[in-house]
Amino acid sequence: MKKYSKIPFLVTLLAIPVFSTLPTNDSVVSASEISDISLEESGSFFDNLTPANVQNIKSELKENGVTEEVSQSLIDKLNNGVAFDSMLYGEEDAVTVDTIPTMTGYKITYTFTDGSITTSSTEELESVLNNTMSTFATGIKGGSTSSGTGYFNGSNREVYYTNPGVWSISFKANYSLTQGSYDKITWVGKHNITMIIAGTMNDVSLRIIRGTETFNQKAEARLSTYLTLGGGYGTMTRSVSLIVGGDAASARGNTYY
């Protein structure tokens, strides 16, 4: 099984499939084509945490292995007008990085000083061919898959980046992994951006940066946006990339556009 270096800071993404003509390299989904962007407005990001907000945050943190004690301390930070470390910093600032094998690759959790987290994952052709295919892994999930001797195809797969309890961004994609040949991203579709507490997003862009892997660069599709948290913290640049190459696919969260 291949070994992977740390993957840049990520957060959960969800997307809704759309079927249309396949985009070529450098294709862009314009602002007019953006859909399924949701926003739960509650005034200032920190001023109006409702019981429902608190419960949603705690539930998502618990699902990702954060203890009740740490969850409460994070809620207290928000109530005091202080953002989670994971809301402000990239994965290079994480104090621990946990890599857990899955049926199709690895799940990676980045934990920051205050206990907040972000997650990502990889899928590997080697893992897919040697194990029963799973349709769920943090980072890439859902859709349909097919595999055979030396190949794996993912269709309408959901690529996501999540900051549990805070926000999530995602899009859908088709891609293929082939032994002895360059891996490809053939399609990207509708996406979803959710701010769980409150805030705004703008300048959303979904595009295929490189459709086919080359001898020195992997294929990449990216969804980018600017997120305004409120509470005096200004605007954050966040994006999630689907990286395909070397017989592996990974969801990578970024702190750049």
Helix content: 10-25%
Radius of gyration: 18 Å
Number of helices: 4
Order of helices and strands: EEHHHEEEHEEEEEEEEEE
* Number of extended strands: 15
Question: What characteristic shape results from the CA principal axes?
Answer: globular
What low-confidence regions span 5 or more consecutive residues with pLDDT below 50?
1-45, 132-138
Given the helix and strand composition, which structural class is it? mainly beta
Question: Can you lay out the helices and strands and say which pair or pack?
Answer:
Layout: E1 28-29, E2 38-39, H1 51-63, H2 68-79, H3 85-88, E3 96-102, E4 105-111, E5 117-124, H4 125-130, E6 136-137, E7 140-141, E8 144-148, E9 151-163, E10 167-178, E11 184-195, E12 200-210, E13 219-228, E14 235-245, E15 248-254
Parallel strand pairs: 2-11
Antiparallel strand pairs: 1-12, 3-4, 4-5, 5-15, 6-7, 7-9, 8-9, 9-10, 10-11, 12-13, 13-14, 14-15
Helix pairs in contact: 1-2
